[in-house]
Input
Amino acid sequence: MGKLFDIALLVLIVLSVILVMLESIATISKQYHNYFYIAEWIVTVFFTLEYIARIIVIKRPKKYIFSFYGIVDLLSTLPSYLGFLMGGHNLFFAIRALRLLRVFRILKITRYVGESHKLIIALKNSRPKILVFLFAVLIVCIITGTLMHLIEGKESGFTNIPISIYWCIVTLTTVGFGDIAPITPLGQFLAGLLMIMGYGIIAVPTGIVGAEFSKSNEESIAKNTQVCPHCNEEKHLSDADFCHNCGNKLNE
Amino acid sequence: MGKLFDIALLVLIVLSVILVMLESIATISKQYHNYFYIAEWIVTVFFTLEYIARIIVIKRPKKYIFSFYGIVDLLSTLPSYLGFLMGGHNLFFAIRALRLLRVFRILKITRYVGESHKLIIALKNSRPKILVFLFAVLIVCIITGTLMHLIEGKESGFTNIPISIYWCIVTLTTVGFGDIAPITPLGQFLAGLLMIMGYGIIAVPTGIVGAEFSKSNEESIAKNTQVCPHCNEEKHLSDADFCHNCGNKLNE
Amino acid sequence: MGKLFDIALLVLIVLSVILVMLESIATISKQYHNYFYIAEWIVTVFFTLEYIARIIVIKRPKKYIFSFYGIVDLLSTLPSYLGFLMGGHNLFFAIRALRLLRVFRILKITRYVGESHKLIIALKNSRPKILVFLFAVLIVCIITGTLMHLIEGKESGFTNIPISIYWCIVTLTTVGFGDIAPITPLGQFLAGLLMIMGYGIIAVPTGIVGAEFSKSNEESIAKNTQVCPHCNEEKHLSDADFCHNCGNKLNE
Amino acid sequence: MGKLFDIALLVLIVLSVILVMLESIATISKQYHNYFYIAEWIVTVFFTLEYIARIIVIKRPKKYIFSFYGIVDLLSTLPSYLGFLMGGHNLFFAIRALRLLRVFRILKITRYVGESHKLIIALKNSRPKILVFLFAVLIVCIITGTLMHLIEGKESGFTNIPISIYWCIVTLTTVGFGDIAPITPLGQFLAGLLMIMGYGIIAVPTGIVGAEFSKSNEESIAKNTQVCPHCNEEKHLSDADFCHNCGNKLNE
Output
């Protein structure tokens, strides 16, 4: 019963987000304006009822209201009311898309959360290294951006330093929109250097996280093991019943 | 003899796919229209005969007909007949290109399949982690896409949320077509953040798969070791003296 | 007290760099010209006083003046004076942005430096491999660039070899601006080969650095073990009972 | 003496390649036409003399002439003579750029070759896996390319299947020129899927090569070790003098 409700809620959240998306397309929005209006009302009322029900049912309502998911739940309903009152939709679009975050709470029950937990731990462990790396990338971007602004001048889009830094980030991350591109030989040479450098250093975050995953893999193997009571040998296979070193029974 | 047939079939499959490609080029298609017509007939007849021969020869024809390769074989012949009957080619183009999938069946006999098997296993093991990751990427794209639509407005291509999400995917995956690009300072700032984030998280799938490959390498080392003479247990640690399953001595 | 000064200096450095950036934007620069002039004076005077104070306080001023940070400190003040004297700003822009490098000295005290130290060591160890790799990439770019210049001719932007090499670097590093793109079928075929090759070899630097990180992780495990009480040897294997250097028992 | 000659030759090779590059720039080529003519003669005569000298000095000239470097050496001189005779430069440009390959022979003596040897071995070991991977990528590109041609039609550059496949390669490798980009919602949706897939599978070659490097690192550690003559313990540290397991001397 609870599971059925979760699935229904999941479908409704996804539908409401698709609704917000479709509404942003001008041609569709105009043609089916009334349908969107009604659908938005239904979704909002349902979410409001659910929000109130949660507050009533839950033991410590205060803790829920000020928790991350509590605020997300409130923000799933409030913008619609404000939008209806004030008419201007645009300001509340982004907030309504936050409804998607509610999906996470429902997915909590699935087996994928264990995996995402591992992912988050590996990322947390490598965070200081990645922060140092991103900081170094930012400084490279600021200095190269200033140089590109000086070299390329105002002819080819590098009109000021912030936009040149933006171009450096676009280039170093190998995105490369092409809306701004160097046209002087010296600018192209510097851009080439920047790209080859970017190619060389893209390895760094990958290496960091990869090593972290390898470590966590090894540790999860190690966690499964026990120490042999006879010879104190460690690091047995996870399904071992007998010590591989002295042949005595483990876990007696 | 069977090998010769396989090679001939391989060449024919590749040729028929090249034929489909060349036929799609307007100038070539008009000039050599008759040749394409004849070549298509020859290929189709040959594939049809091969398909019928397989059904006759094989022990359990039903199982073959409804297997993956059976359907691919049927789809290699049927669209041509339908195309000849109805005249409209375009609808059957994509299906005819599926002929290429037949290549896999023939390549099965080569040593590369062992390698692809390892690849597939490593990918399967890391699938839950990659799915969680891709789901997180999608949510980031939806929220950033909505924000970009609000910031950039209708001036620079971010005309609706779905197209903004499309732009976010293009940017986060570091493809960067440049058909849509932010022009407001705030939009460029958010784009810069998105790119640096994308640069930092591109490490995640790489780390996952890399760790998986390392693990499968290590496991293939574990496999190198002896079988227990008492209980036939495999997969001992490389330095094991006693079987971890029955406790008897290895290598007596 | 010293920490407070460091934080104040950090804020001032970041502010002065933001100032340089904003000044480069034509519209802002014109409107707030006087404010920028005053702010620049304040920052410059402060940095000059700090520079002089350092020389007075420090024991070996000569060593400081000619050290990396000494030169950076000097370059944080000098360009402003030269700019005030000569009027022309542009020439001194890049040098003023170097102020950002001062940030590193202050950040030295934070815990992130340990991480960046590990990063730098891993990069240093993999430097010869990465240099060989980048050299190979450069030769591929020169040869492919020449071929593209010959194939594409002067129709589509590949007007000379240096610019074709620039395009090859842009493509191989997967940046892909799109300011230059092949239009002949043969050129597009060669570009396709180059891209798939680039996709295959992007793995190389990542693999190098990743393996280096894994190694440094393993070594840091080795470091966790005991010091030999007889010869003070460090870095034993984690399961060592006897010192590998003098043969005496560990952990008696 | 031999080393000095090598360095002189290295400089000459690099200079001759830079010459070829500069000559391809129309404005420079016209202005300094005579200088290029003379420089080309000098380089060609020098390379010819060196080539003849090698044939005379070497013991088995036949083996040299038909070796890889022998052919490269011949191709460094011949195109210039043919160019002088026939006037048409363009045809011989690419071949002249091959002079750069001569650099490798000279660099053979440096310490970097050991590193490149390791790189090549790691790449060779992971070649079958990478080939399988690239083959799968190619099939994905052919099928998606055909689909995109059908969906996008002739409005947005996907005019035939080969060019659509070219676009798929550009997109899947995350290059993204933007010369061709989908404009229909369905095409953009398929492109989004392709990109996210490309993002997920970029991990594969990286994982393969990374695991290969890790393995070769571990093996190079293992190679340094010896078996203890007293307790048969393996896997000592590379600088171990005594067995860490029984405390007896190694390598007596």
Summary: Chain D is about 70% helix and 0% strand. The two ends of chain D are 44 Å apart (CA to CA). The interface with chain A takes residues 174-178, 206, 210, 214 of chain D (CB under 8 Å). The longest helix of chain D spans residues 127-152.
